[in-house]
Amino acid sequence: MRERLLIFVILMLATALFGEMKVNPFGSFFRFSLGSAVFFFGLIWFQSIPILLTGFCTGLFIMGFRIAIDMLMGQALWFDSLLTHLPAAFYYFSFALFVHVTRILQYMEFPIRVGLLGAAIDFASNIIELLIRQLLGESLVVTREIIFMLLLFGTFRSFCVVGLYNILKIQQIRTFGEARRQELERLVMINTSLYEEMFYLRKSMSHMEEITRKSYELYMQLMESEKVEPSTALYIAEHVHEVKKDSQRILAGLSKLMKQEQLNLRLPITELCGMVIRANQKYAELLGKSIRFSEECSVNLSTNHVYALLSVLNNLVSNAVEAISSSGWIGLRAELDQEEIVFYVTDSGPGIPKEDWDWVFQPGFTTKYDENGNPSTGIGLTHAQEIVQSFKGRIQLTYDEYNRTQFQVRIPADQLFRKEAT
Questions:
Q1: Pick from 55, 73, 106, 313: CA 20 to 30 A from residue 251's CA?
Q2: Which of 184, 179, 177 is nearest to 264 (CA)?
Q3: Interatomic CA distance for residues 148 and 123, integer angstroms
């Protein structure tokens, strides 16, 4: 309520002030001003305020405002000033009434129609003001020249207002769309992290199942030998089994969440590559590095395996960001090679020595250290390889045409477009 009242007061003040930017074309007190354009814009932009009440109050306020100016400047007696400015109040009464009757706000998606209606409303309101002035004794004859001037100014003001309205609306929609896109990318990145955790949780459950089975077999062997105390093996089996059950509950919840998120999430490969680039541009800025990113994608296909691909590509590109000392470039390229989709990640970093190529996908291997000399976890590339292999693909280190180290990910196209397993 307070916000609407503030808008209401601001619109009256703005209309009154811009109404003083005027010309008097007919040698009388009748004026063309920017006040009516401001009033029209306020009615169509702030659609929460009541139209009729706004028109009535604005008309009275403008009449009082102009009378007060005349009194302060000593230009006329208050009654003469009242007769002079009373017709202007009827202009705003009429304008608001016509806007309400024509329901012009329902046609804002059709700017030409709104512009023509606004011109007609402005013209009709001006005619009413002129008639009121004639009734109050002003010697003003409505000629064809006057009618032409009213139509011309009314059309000009109306289409200027509608044009400004549409420009601001388009900008507002773009801003809103950009905010929605950024929010979607943030949520997708969060879900990508959940996908990684779910992937490892499923793998851990498989290991725990195997440990449970082996522990129970050991327990039975110990029971049969009757030479050692078998309770320790049984204890291990029971507790690993409990951990497995807890992991199953967590996995069930994560799987349900991921399944709900993925029901309608299907992105083009080009958009997915763009998300990886934008996310790592922010990451590079966070690390204080000046890195130029390039993206080239000629794959005009969409996939619902968004989180898996994001996890792999984001891992490779973020590794490249971390490998670059302060400034450089990173390239991400995707193309269709026969029945495979191939992703290439290249950067201007120091590269990986040839003798280390056989070790880079081993758990714990790393060439990255923080400022304190602590090594990275060394599981990122292992994780990426396991995801790629789950799609029957392969990830490998190669040289590009300029003899620079690059990561190459090859995934069969039919695997990326198969239905997500439940």
A1: 313
A2: 184
A3: 10
